[in-house]
Amino acid sequence: MLAALLYLRDFMVIVACLLVGKAVSAILPFTFPGSIIGMLLLFVLLSLQLIKLQWVERGAGLLLRHMGVLFVPVAVGLAAWLDTLSQYFGLIMCSALLGVVLILMTVGRLYQRMNR
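Request: output the structure for the sequence above.
Response:
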């Protein structure tokens, strides 16, 4: 019984950050994913120790263990776009590869500057 309440508390904290992130996203004058804002909010709250790690650790661990199952609806949704994805597959792969290279170069440069 106590374990169920701890999981409930963990999920409530995570969902509260998600809902605040979605609310902030709705207010912004440009489009930005509310889930990302909520994740950043959770990170800031954990970093400032306004939320203790123990308050989200158990629930986040459960979500991470079952992450593969959580992506099944996304994969099924992508099946409806297979013709579009196959048409632009080369462009998508080039964009992804270029993005990875740019991120690695940026992180490498920042790391070199920070270690001088």
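The mean pLDDT is 92.
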